[in-house]
Structures
1.
Amino acid sequence: MAQLDGPRIGPASGGPAKQLVVLLHGLGADGRDLIDLAAGWGQALPEAAFVAPDAPEACDMAPYGRQWFSAQDRRPAVIAAGAMAARLPLDRFLDAELGRLGLPGSALALAGFSQGCMMALYAGLRRAVPPAAILGYSGALLAPEALAAEITGRPPVLLVHGEADDIVPVAATRTAEAALRRAGVPVEALYRPGLAHGIDEAGLAAGRRWLEAAFGTRPEPGTGA
């Protein structure tokens, strides 16, 4: 089974970590693509450690980068099987990082972009101990038909998507938002007019507020505060 690793930053306080934020990159990237989010979010969460693991496979659609699963065959069942396989090394990595830091599973937050968003939702909603929060940027909810039978917890979820995304259509997040609501998951969505496949400052700020709320430095997600 693949052993995951990637860049780490924090805590900004210099003291022991009290939270862990894991950043999951998209197709054809690696952990370095998202670890810089720790610079901004870490100022608001000075006791959080951040890690951005490289996905377990070399990208099969480019001569560089990593992938959580192949996207060459995009039939839903094939993609779901790929996510299921990738969940095993990811869960093992999450457990190892929490153990290394001496933290409970409830001190974890998952944030992902594109394919990393898909993995954050797929793995996070099936963790034995639900994470404190899930942030999903420009992604989708895989295997929604299996969620009711497989969900193990309902952490607060923030979804952010650009309305001009031509890689993963914004309809994927609208569908995910509706499916999560049906499953009883507390979810909020932010749709960004004119934004293509990426994360803008408004999305970053929303993610920071979501993490602050999840870790108890602001009111709970979904309160509108």
2.
Amino acid sequence: MAIESVGGSILSKIAELLVEPTIRQFRYMFCFNNFVQEFNEQKKNLALTLDRLQNAVEVAERNAEEIEKDVNKWLEDAKNEIEGVNRLENEKGKNSKCFNWCPNWIPQFKLSKALAKKIETLKKLEENRP
């Protein structure tokens, strides 16, 4: 009986370690449009936050107030990320279909993976804004 429970727990752990990464990889291939939509939303949110903070900094500078270093660093990081987003935008806009009717899976997979990483980066950047 003890051996069966140990064997069952080992099998469940193996299944857990194998199934989740496999599902994630398939998700990159088959949920491309979801990644694109979420990427566009995150890009828009970051751009709005950047504009709002940039306007607040300009007002503070006109009032001769000192701008803190973390605010300037966040603005610089956000601008750099927006530039990186523009490169992905160009990649996303390319025609990724073979024979104009079926998706070209390898570039779509790579782009989905890159979009997922960029989405996480944009989320972290927006959460850490001053």
